[in-house]
């Protein structure tokens, strides 16, 4: 394990990125380009800390593809509409640094709130529009505007193209990694990157599940054993849908919903089958799917709100 360098300010981060890229000296992981220079690459993995195996797989994906890996740890107040949720969000920087070191992350940016929002909550924010108002956005107004605003800032802070001298003029490829678990967040970040011309490739990292099927989440620590057992109905319902679809049958959403609703400790918020990019519900579910789709759900399990999703594909390779 190596110890990642911890940076607290955007200025420190920028110069640490410049040094890290310069130290790679053109020995990039990517193939050489037309000018004969070998491009370098930088992978950014934004997180709010409380890291688990899902985050570890994001770090591993970034480490496998990039010369320099930067993780951020920042509990973004802008994306919490419930102050109590923000207060009790787990903050575990020491353990996070250990996981990041084990994953071979080079730089960790863990700024204070005043560094990111020096004038208090920003007046101008990125609007998540209609896509951000549905599903998670419906029960957490403003949540996705807060997510997009901080992701935009983090993408700027870590952008290797903002300091081209950093790599001695060598082109630098920029990638940013987000979990497929937060499917709506991922779809919105992709749209923001496209609509607002960000220079980072947005990469999705598949959901990581515990042996009992529960999707890894920082909120799982709040589940007592009884609620944890009850929560496994969510992945069982998703797997049942996937198995039907991959066998060529129409998705039986009503049966999957009924399975979840039969679990008394789980209160279902939504369960839909949607287009993976637009998150628009599919119009007809009475015949086998003819294109990739995503089953998407959220539920309250005791005091914990859980989300989960699973790609549905005819091939059964999801
Ligand atoms: O997915 C998260 O942990 C957060 O929403 C993110 C992307 C780091 C923005 O705060």
Short key terms for the protein model shown above:
Pantoate--beta-alanine Ligase, Chain: A,domain 2, Rossmann fold, 6-stranded parallel sheet, 318 residues, alpha/beta, binds pantoate
Could you please describe the fold and organization of this structure?
The chain is α/β, with parallel strands linked by helices and 318 residues long. 35% of the residues lie in helices and 19% in strands. It has a six-stranded parallel sheet, with helices on both faces. The chain has a three-stranded antiparallel sheet with strand order 7-8-9, with helices on one face. Strand 8 and strand 9 (304-312) form a beta hairpin. It is globular and about 60 Å long. The model is unreliable at 27-34 (pLDDT under 50). Bound molecules: pantoate. Pantoate binds at residues 46-48, 76, 79, 147, 150-151, 182, 185.
């Amino acid at each position: 394990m190596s110890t990642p360098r911890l940076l607290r300010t955007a200025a420190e981060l920028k110069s640490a990125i410049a040094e890290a890229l310069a130290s790679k000296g053109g020995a990039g992981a990517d193939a050489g380009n037309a000018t004969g220079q070998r491009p370098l690459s930088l992978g950014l993995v934004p997180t709010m800390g409380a890291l688990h195996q899902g985050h570890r797989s994001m770090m591993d994906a970034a480490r496998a593809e990039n010369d320099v890996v930067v993780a951020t740890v920042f509990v973004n107040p802008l994306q919490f509409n419930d102050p109590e949720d923000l207060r009790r969000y787990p903050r575990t920087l020491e353990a996070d640094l250990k996981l990041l070191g084990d994953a071979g992350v080079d730089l960790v940016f863990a700024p204070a709130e005043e560094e990111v929002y020096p004038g208090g909550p920003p007046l101008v924010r990125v609007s998540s529009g209609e896509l951000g108002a549905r599903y998670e956005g419906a029960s957490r107004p403003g949540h996705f505007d807060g997510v997009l605003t901080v992701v935009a800032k983090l993408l700027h802070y870590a952008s290797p193209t903002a300091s081209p001298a950093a790599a001695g003029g060598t082109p630098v490829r920029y990638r940013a990694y987000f979990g497929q678990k937060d499917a709506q967040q991922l779809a919105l970040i992709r749209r923001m990157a496209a609509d607002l011309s960000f220079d980072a490739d947005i990469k999705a990292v598949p959901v990581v599940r515990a042996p009992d099927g529960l999707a890894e989440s920082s909120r799982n620590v709040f589940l007592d054993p009884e609620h944890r057992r009850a929560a496994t109905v969510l992945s069982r319902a998703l797997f049942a849908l996937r198995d039907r679809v991959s066998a060529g049958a129409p998705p039986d959403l009503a049966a999957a919903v009924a399975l979840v609703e039969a679990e008394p400790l789980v209160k279902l918020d939504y369960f839909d089958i949607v287009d993976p990019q637009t998150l628009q519900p599919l119009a007809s579910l009475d015949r086998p799917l003819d294109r990739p789709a995503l089953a998407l759900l959220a539920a309250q399990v005791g005091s914990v709100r859980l989300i989960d999703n699973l790609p549905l594909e005819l091939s059964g390779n999801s």
